[in-house]
TrEMBL record:
GO terms for molecular function: ATP binding; four-way junction DNA binding; four-way junction helicase activity. It comes from the Bacteria. Residues 149-200 are annotated as: Domain III. This is Holliday junction branch migration complex subunit RuvA. The RuvA-RuvB-RuvC complex processes Holliday junction (HJ) DNA during genetic recombination and DNA repair, while the RuvA-RuvB complex plays an important role in the rescue of blocked DNA replication forks via replication fork reversal (RFR). RuvA specifically binds to HJ cruciform DNA, conferring on it an open structure. The RuvB hexamer acts as an ATP-dependent pump, pulling dsDNA into and through the RuvAB complex. HJ branch migration allows RuvC to scan DNA until it finds its consensus sequence, where it cleaves and resolves the cruciform DNA. Has three domains with a flexible linker between the domains II and III and assumes an 'L' shape. Domain III is highly mobile and contacts RuvB. GO terms for cellular component: cytoplasm; Holliday junction helicase complex; Holliday junction resolvase complex. Residues 72-91, 107-126 form the Helix-hairpin-helix DNA-binding motif class domain. It is found in: Cytoplasm. The gene is ruvA. The keyword Nucleotide-binding applies.
Length: 200
């Protein structure tokens, strides 16, 4: 188990980063908020969870141990794998997930792509006694590469990768574009705005 990585950020994308540890560049899948808080060249420490499959080793990274704990706990529910668990954290921070599960807020949980009403009810039933109580979590600060003319395609691709349909992603990008974002708005911030549109 790789519990954490600490090193220089070689590349920060919309939902993944490459961290150099001991001369080796490790590809780490993250939430958009975590990726947005990192910049190339800076030192970073990420709590991590290694998912081992027959044909792959995939490393998932988180801003703190609490986020990793929630990621691993939600996967104890039948039908929830690492991609869906990461999508849950991309839409809702740990405390929001705890609050939704604790209060049985099925509607909030179904805002995550890939989770329907029955899936949300199963999450509430199986996680209510496991996921803990709402704590004092911190929000990641949005920062990232400057937006370019290609930001719409980048955001659309990231949303589809997180599980939304192409049409949902296109509609969210169109909604964000309609707000006339500033030319220097980071792509990660635009992705976060699109996630907020989809979460309504």
């Amino acid at each position: 188990m790789i519990a954490s990585v600490h090193g220089t950020v070689l590349r920060a994308g919309l939902d993944q980063v490459v961290v150099e540890v001991g001369g080796v560049g490790l590809l780490v899948h993250t939430t958009p908020a975590t990726a947005a808080a990192l910049r190339s060249g800076q030192q970073a420490r990420l709590a991590t969870s290694l998912v081992v499959r027959e044909d792959s080793l995939t490393l998932y990274g988180f801003a703190d141990d609490d986020e990793r704990s929630v990621f691993e706990t939600v996967q104890t529910v039948s039908g929830v794998g690492p991609r869906l668990a990461l999508a849950m954290l991309a839409v809702h921070p740990p405390d929001a997930l705890r609050a939704a599960v604790g209060s049985g807020d099925v509607l909030t949980l179904t805002k995550v792509p890939g989770i329907g009403r029955k899936g949300a009810e199963r999450l509430v039933l199986e996680l209510r006694d496991k996921i803990g109580v709402v704590g004092a979590g911190g929000a990641a600060v949005a920062a990232g590469q400057p937006a370019t003319a290609a930001w719409q395609g980048q955001v659309q691709e990231a949303l589809v990768g997180l599980g939304w349909s192409t049409k949902q992603a296109d509609d969210a990008v169109a909604a964000v574009a309609g707000t006339q974002p500033a030319a220097d708005t980071p792509v990660a911030a635009l992705l976060k705005a699109a996630l907020q549109v989809l979460g309504r």
